[in-house]
Amino acid sequence: MRATALPARSPKPARPLRHGVVFWAVRRDGSVLLRRRAEEGLLGGMMEFPSTDWRARPWGPAEALASAPLSAKWMALPGLVRHGFTHFQLELAVMSGVGTTEGLWSPVERLGDHALPTLMKKVARHAIATFATHPYGSATSSAARSGGSPSAASLTGANESR
């Protein structure tokens, strides 16, 4: 009886949707490019794959490529990586390219050694799974090309104990 006397719970406001593009940059030896996020802000100080800013409207291909971390022939991977944060939803397109630049390069097999947030683990699993089912030649890691690639979960640290 008391429940009927209480005011109804107001509906949660819809979380806005943001968009971004992540660059899965691969070196000829199969290593992928990482960078550290700024200490302040969301996911501060954690590692990530280079990306555009996250914003309300989707990125056009030419516009996104202006933020690419290196000069390469970039290819859009099929699908999107989706992730929910407390105050917004995020959809990331993933582009892959082969090249080199200064920075931190990690073998795919060692990605679990880095402080990757769950979002970036999703990006890695998406890219690795795409290459396992749609081989794009030199854009895949050397381990995947040789058929000796461990599971995507172990490569991204999804099996790591905490």
Describe what you observe in this structure.
With 162 residues, the protein is an alpha+beta fold. It has a single domain (21-155), classed as Alpha-Beta Complex (Nucleoside Triphosphate Pyrophosphohydrolase), CATH 3.90.79. The protein has helices spanning 2-5, 61-65, 118-133, 142-146, 152-155, and strands at 17-26, 32-36, 47-48, 75-76, 81-84, 89-98, 104-106. β5 and β6 form a beta hairpin. The longest helix has 16 residues, at 118-133.
Quick one: CATH superfamily? Nucleoside Triphosphate Pyrophosphohydrolase
What structural class do the secondary elements suggest? alpha+beta
- Tally of distinct domains: 1
| End-to-end C-alpha gap | 46 Å
SSE series? HEEEHEEEEHHH
Percentage of residues in helical conformation? 10-25%
Residue windows where pLDDT falls under 50 for at least 5 positions: 136-162
Radius of gyration, CA atoms, in whole angstroms: 18 Å
The top level CATH class name: Alpha Beta
CATH topology call: Nucleoside Triphosphate Pyrophosphohydrolase
Number of strands: 7
The name of the CATH architecture is Alpha-Beta Complex
In this structure, how is the largest beta sheet organized?
4 strands, mixed
What's the mean pLDDT score? 83
The outline comes out as: elongated
Structure annotation, total helices? 5
Quote the beta fraction: 15-25%
